[in-house]
Amino acid sequence: MALWMRRVVLGVVLAGMLSAPAMATAPGPKVRLLVLTDIENEPDDAQSLVRLLLYANELDIEALVATTSTHMRTEVHPESLRRTIAAYGQVQPNLLLHAPGYPSAESLSARVHAGQPAYGMAATGPGKDSEGARRIIAALDRADPRPLWVSIWGGANTLAQALLTLKATRSPAELARLVAKLRVYTISDQDDAGAWIRRTFPDLFYIVSPGSYAAATWGGMNVAVEGLDNTSVSNDWIARNIQQGHGVLGAAYPDVAYGMEGDTPAFLGLIPTGLSDPEHPDWGGWGGRYELYIPALEATDPKGFNGNVPVEAETRPIWTNAVDTVTPYIDSPHGRAITPAPRRYSHFQATIWRWRDAFQNDFAARMAWTTQPPEKANHPPVAALDHADRLTVTAGDLFMLSAKGSSDPDGDSLSYLWFHYPEVGSWKQPIPAKGAENIYRVTFRAPMVTKPETAHFIAAVTDKGTPALTRYRRVIVTVLPRG
User: What domains sit in the chain, N to C, each tagged with a CATH number?
Assistant: First the structure.
């Protein structure tokens, strides 16, 4: 046996001794989600709602609350939420042919509530509890060990009111316990409540890009990237794959006015694809990647456009913009099926757009579920591992990662891509594959380290259905120094 092969075998055997084998993971508990939306401010909230409803079987949607924002200060529109839910109700039976767990339109409509029809912190205080604020408190009080994710697409004053009420009515210990259950992802600051919340509750888990919208990670949802094929966020793509010929829910998806689905990243990373872990925003996923730090005020572009919301210096660490350096892969007409593109990109919005073709294809496939029978639609593959998802190897050794056992429910052929995610984990230097990276079993060489280091590797498993769908597995490798 060749020396390199002996080292590969030794690495895999050692990994198996240190960690139990893991194949395709069983689904974990659904994420609890509560949405605050300034729907009717502009079309993108309605767009995001259409997408969210297509994933209503993957998430526990506890409430949908119509709120204000700096762009719509004196009105709320719960009826618009119910109108889109009614369209969903017409296609829900067909969705159930493709996947279990889609809630009824009636149950979702019962979860629609309203916040105060007034702007920001001026609409909070004693006696100003809205039904939306009461729903947040009720969800936190529920005896459920799962965190409660609050996805904020507009202003945050409904959450601020709920926290004010809890602060006034609960003991400090009880308040701390309830705040610890909250996970907040807000699309910039669209009123003055967000900054107040972060100052007042410094331990609250909070994802946000404060300041100018141009300085926000969520812009990666719809920005056209120079040098790339941006077809999947084009108006033509939206018309062909979502709006026209895809039933009543697709027809409810409005045209883009300012930007496509700027609010969607606030829930996109919660969809279970095997890529992201909601408790680790720094690991990256469809909703972007974020690091915990205090951003410099000038880094937030405070004089840029944000609807005239005051921009303050942050007083404590928040989960905010992180930069990925991405070399996209492109199809190759001959030889190896994919090849790195000639251009590399480094940007905080790249933490979203690098996955964009995958999540747009997933959206298109789910929209097809609303009208097509299962045999005429595509369904995502099941990504699996031939070993544990936590491995330990020694510096300098070769080790093998394998997605053997991955499968597709429609019997489609599968493509693979293994890559190191250098921005995640303690080891930041790229670790290239030894040979082709687009086969199910790929070899890497552990870097030479002087202390234990961690490296994250991603397997992207994509079917050849129409549209092509991708699921992922993440392997975290600990590299030990040589003895």
Answer: 1-24+382-483 (2.60.40.10), 31-321 (3.90.245.10)
